[in-house]
Every structure is written in C-alpha cells, then in structure tokens.
Amino acid sequence: MTERPPQRTPNRQLAALIAEAGFSNAGLARRVDQLGLEHGLDLRYDKTSVTRWLRGQQPRGTTPALIAEVFTRRLGRRLSAQDLGLDACAPVYAGLEFAATPEEAIDIVGGLWRKDSGSHAELRKIAFTPAGLVVPSRDWLIGRADERVARGGEPPQTPRVPPQGRPGVPRQRRDTDRGPGHRVSGGDIAALRSVGELFRALDHAYGGGHARQALVRYLEHEAEPMLRGTYNEQAGRRLFAAAADLTRLAGWTSYDIAAHGLAQRYFVQALRLSQAAGDRAYGSYVLVTMSRQAVYLGHGREAVQLARVAQQGVGSSAPPVVQALLHAVEARGHGVLGEVRACTASMVRAERALEAARPGDEVPYWARFFDEAQLADEFAHCNRDLQQYRAAAQHAERSLQLRAPGYARSRLFCRVVLATSRLGLGELEQACQLGAEAAQAAGEMRSVRAVEYVRDFERRLEPYRDAAPVRAYRDKVAALG
C-alpha cells in the first residue's frame, strides 16, 4: 500500500494579506518577478505559482523574503516571511531594518560590521534600492528616543582596599580584553570620538578607500564589545551617539568606493543608533547623508524627500547652520530633477539661514564644516545641474578660494564642477586645464567618486575630442597613468 503525500494546509495569512493589499494573484507574481530583477534574479512566477502558495506550497530560496518585501512596500509596514505564513529565510534587505529595540539594533549593526570586516566581497556588491529608504526614514520621523538603553546594574559600592606594595604607590592596572560585562567608561567613549576625527580627516584628504577597512575592524573589535558592555543611561546615550557617528562614517567611506548598497545599510543603522542616543539633530544629519547618496545616484525625488523628513524631524529650533545645511541638501535634489524654481527657493533659504548664524552660536560638531565655502560648493553643483554655467563657475571659484587644503576631495569635486562650467561657457582650454588638475588629484586618492567625477567631465569632452586642448588633456592624463 503506497503512502499518500501529506496534506498541505491552506495559507490563510498570505490570503489575508493579498486581500488587504488589493493584489490579484497575477499582480503579486508580477511584482515578485520585478523585485527579483532588482537583485539580478530571473524569476518566472505567474498566477498559478501564487495559487500553489495559497494552497500551502513553500516557495524556494530567497523568494519568501522577496514576497515579504513586496507586501512591505505596498502596506508600509515591515513584514517578514513568517508574517506571510512562509518558511523563514534571510531577509532580502538584511541591514535595512529599523530595529524595534536598542538590543536588536546592536545585533543588526554588529552583524553588519562582522560581515564587512571579513572577506565578504559580495557585501560590497549589494545594489542600492530607493525603496529601502521609505520605512526607516518614516520610522525615525514618527519614533521617539528609546526609554531605556542602560545595560547591567550600577557598579557595586565596595570598600577601598589599599594597594599592596609600598605605601602611596598604586599597583599598575593590567589591560584586559573587554568581556560582555565590561563597564564602559568616559574614556572609552572619548576614544571612539577621537578615532572618528582621525578617520574623518583621512577620508577628506585621501578618500574613503584609504582606511575604510580599518574603521570597520575597529567597530567590530572595539565598538561592539562596548555596546554589549555595562553602562548607565547617561553613558549609554553617549555611547550610542559615538557608535552612530562611526557607523555613518563607515557608510560614507563605503559610498565613496561605490559600495552603495552597503553604504545604504550603514546609514539606516546609524539612523537607528542615533535614535537610541536620543540625538534627533544627528539623525537629521544621517538623513542628509542618505540624501547626498540619492543625489549622486540620480534619485532626485528620494533626495528631496529625505531632506524634508530631516527638516521636519528637527523643526525650527535647530541652529541656523544646521538649517542652512538641510535646505542646501534639498536644493541639490531639486537640481538633479531640473526643478529650477524649487531649487532656487531652497538655495535662498539656505543662504538666509547661514547669514543668520552668529560666531557665538552653539553648533553641533558634525555641522561645523558647513561654512561659506561649503555653501558656495552646493550652489555650484546646483547651478551646474540646472545648466546655469556662469553662476556655477562663480560659486565654484569662490568655494575653491575659501576651502581649506585638508578637504582635498571636496576641492577636487569643485574643480571638476568649475571645469564643466567653463566647458559649458565655451572656454575649452581653461576647462581642460582644470580637468587635468582634477585628474591628477584623483590619481592620488582612493575614491571611486573622485574618478567618476573626472570620467563625467571626460564624457562631456567627447563632442570636442578632435580639438587641440582636448588632445593635450588626454596626453596629460595618459602620462599620469
């Protein structure tokens, strides 16, 4: 007697969500196939496939996570495969989750650091996805600082025991590895801050690829044990703030080497850590960073939305310098979209806000870079994108005059914008000279963005490829190797 195959249980959870989302079976299959294409998968699901899932068949591989992401996008809330009555599998957008608790946030970002510090080259090939911006930015905007971030109890009050040895000579303390119960000190948190300044300076001068891997290893071996250590509320907030800053910087350096999907994940996790820190203003800066990446990748609409979420999140109480930064970043998004009026309005707001700043104002450390040189740089980029080349050239020249030499990569970008503007004005020889200077600077950095700026300029030179200045430019660049 042959055994009958086990009866499958109809998937009522999936059926309920299909009804809530208003999908037809064919419509759900089509969306899963389209999402698969975003991840390089050639899927061929149809309405019959969905019927089988509803009857209890389990889809294979990463498909449950893809189906969950389709519903997440449609319904505006994070759903897992299990929520759909499907077998658990690794989330297709691992790292883009906005954690529900500080503990979960530590788990997610710690996993990201560990994978990135190893030989997981595929992590640096993950694609950027505009849809992955929606839920985290919304959750940050409507969320509040976590009620409690402290871990472990207060240190016990033990009587002071005199050190052994000669009177008045304390024993030397031996450094030990941080264990799970390590008590985080003010010195530990100050060290995180100092390391951030060091890596930031390296990034500005030599590009994100120069020390990115060292930064990620530092996060794995130093920051994560601290986050899993013991600390009170006050120290915990400061610790999460320092970890958020370093995580944002890891994302920024990843962005600079064109690891865009990885950078996006770091930014989302930095946003979540800033919420645990209770630092709303720093969260707005993370959103600004995310907006800049969206601008670079040509996603102007998302860039504008992120800048506006940041503005709404901090309100009108932010210092004028911060307000100027937020409006300038929104202007960049409008510039990419070619929206002249909206871009100009945002630029005017940014300029007025910076003019309202006073020397004695209390400005967050992360906003102190935003000065007249940076504002002129933002305006130059906006005017270039709007093909207003004369204004772009004027702003770029002003920025280069004011910008400190330590900001080598920013100066390179601005020089390329100036070269492009000179080209747009028909000043071919001057454009090629500026372009050659930028190409030389790019050769001294480990920055994919720097190389891409130069390549963009070279593409614009193509219509003039037979002109003598262009041939001379190509010879100079070839000589640089």
Automatic annotation (TrEMBL):
Top-level taxon in the UniProt lineage: Bacteria
Compositionally biased spans, kind Pro residues: 156-165
Annotated region (Disordered), positions in chain: 148-186
Protein name: Regulatory protein
Gene source species: Streptomyces longispororuber
